[in-house]
Specification:
This protein has 124 residues and is an alpha/beta fold. 33% of the residues lie in helices and 24% in strands.
């Protein structure tokens, strides 16, 4: 059975953190070929500029992600990126949905603020 992990890309993301998350998950596919990593931009623009001016091309827009079949979400930090994630109702709803199903919700650096905004840190 396939496992699907979403890494949302928001303008101003911290490049090193995103690459760390994406690299580890992509390498994990060697152990589990059924692992699918989906890199999605928050809007229709797939080329997303990071905090240090490095642009990464997303696989798709968040609108194209089958949210019902996600097994995890992993958020990179970067202040501007975190603020953009925090202000995305789509991302907040995905986090809430995954958390309610006891699925994996992960965040590094500044991005636990997004988890707090989604209301999933209470009691954690």
């Amino acid at each position: 059975m396939s496992k699907k992990v979403l890494i949302p890309l928001a303008q101003g993301f911290e490049e090193a953190e995103f690459i760390g998350i994406a690299d580890v998950l992509k390498r994990a596919r060697e152990l589990n070929p059924d692992l699918e990593v989906v890199i999605a931009s928050l809007n229709s623009e797939l080329l997303v500029k990071g905090a240090n001016g490095i642009s990464i091309k997303a696989d798709c827009s968040i609108e194209d992600v089958d949210i019902e079949n996600l097994d995890a979400i992993a958020l990179a930090g970067g202040f501007e990126g975190m603020m953009n994630l925090k202000n995305s109702n789509v991302i907040l709803n995905i986090i809430k949905q995954l958390h309610s199903k006891n699925k994996i919700v992960a965040a590094i650096c500044a991005s636990p603020i997004v988890l707090n905004e989604a209301g999933v840190l209470e009691g954690e």
